[in-house]
Design a protein that fits this description.
The chain is an alpha/beta fold and 327 residues long. The chain is 40% helix and 17% strand. Helix 2 (28-39) links the parallel strand 1 and strand 2 (43-48). It starts with 8 loop residues before the first helix and ends with a helix.
Length: 327
């Protein structure tokens, strides 16, 4: 849990007694965000298809189960809200390429319906979690700045980028106040370990259960891993931000190959070499993605605080407890 004192005073103050709706509030990021908002004194309503298995949501959070494409259900939960955090995504990069039309319908069209409801409902602010790992595509320069070219190689990234553009349009046409966070690769407690997204949790789970570590490609694919608590702190900082920037990268600013992650997992477990299975390279994987986070640090004072080894050990502790309880 993010201690309130670790946030800038204005970030905490901007949320006290504020009505906040978290779309995707039962998921990995959503659970952590809901708990942080409740701890800061916000009135929190979470909406989503289901809650993440074994996640614990603060008892002060009101929960509504529903589908993102159910416009009537969305309209009901939006009523009376001041801020909406949009964390819902109906796909992952790999699966999105198998059915781009379905990805477009579920994510982009669904968000357009949401924006119409926000406009008519008088919601004051929207915070959207985009994807710093996919919207840029194969980068020309590392680390990647917010001003870099955006050429996604997955339908998932295209949908995220389209949503960003529609937010800018609704700001221009209707005055919608919004902030976009292009988040790199979050990890931590409550992350689903069986989805094809979230390599840290997946590797830890396979290591704890004695299965070979699955590594896509050669293991040289490099990603920017950031602890979920740092991501939530960035969301809260973006909410309080009053400046002119609408778009921020959120990451650690450091790259780590999948092979290096596997090495870290071995060290965290304190065991000898673990068996590794190398799988075919996935078409949606860019070779390297490391974000430049100087803009959000300069504008809001946010910076990543959770050390990689400490964050990994905490995630391992949680994964181990889940495996043990399932026996």
């Amino acid at each position: 849990m993010i201690p309130p004192e670790s946030l800038a005073p204005e970030a905490a103050a901007s949320l006290r007694n504020r009505s906040c709706l978290v779309l995707g509030g039962g998921g990995f990021l959503g659970t952590h965000l809901c708990n942080a908002l409740a701890a800061l004194g916000a009135r929190v309503h979470a909406f989503g298809r289901s809650r993440t298995e074994a996640a614990v949501i603060d008892r002060r959070v009101h929960w509504t189960a529903g589908e993102f494409n159910d416009i009537a259900a969305l309209a009901k939960v939006i009523e009376g809200q001041e801020t909406v955090f949009h964390l819902i995504s109906a796909s992952v990069p790999e699966s999105s390429n198998r059915d781009p039309a379905a990805d477009l319908s579920a994510n982009t069209i669904g968000t357009l319906h949401l924006l119409e409801l926000l406009r008519s409902g008088g919601v004051q602010k929207l915070i959207f979690t985009s994807s710093g790992g996919t919207v840029y595509g194969v980068p020309e320069h590392i680390p990647i700045k917010e001003t870099a070219a955006t050429d996604p190689i997955s339908a998932y990234g295209i949908s995220k980028l389209a949503t960003e553009k529609y937010l800018a349009l609704y700001h221009r046409l209707h005055g919608l106040d919004y902030r976009i966070l292009r988040v790199s690769n979050p990890y931590g407690r409550y992350q689903a370990v069986h989805r094809r997204q979230g390599v840290v949790g997946a590797l830890l789970h396979r290591a704890v259960t004695g299965e070979p570590l699955e590594i896509w490609g050669t293991g040289d694919v490099t990603r920017d891993f950031i602890h979920v608590e740092d991501v939530v702190a960035a969301m809260l900082s973006a909410h309080a931000y009053q400046g002119s920037h609408r778009l921020f990268n959120v990451g650690s600013g450091h790259g780590m190959s999948i092979r290096e992650v596997a090495d870290s997992v071995e060290r965290a477990l304190g065991r000898g070499p673990l068996e590794r299975n190398y799988m075919r390279t996935r078409a949606a994987d860019v070779p390297v993605n490391i974000l430049d986070t100087s803009l959000i640090q300069r504008e809001t004072g946010w910076r990543p605080r959770v050390d990689w080894e400490e964050g990994l050990a905490d995630t391992l502790s949680w994964v181990s407890a889940q495996v043990e309880s399932a026996k």
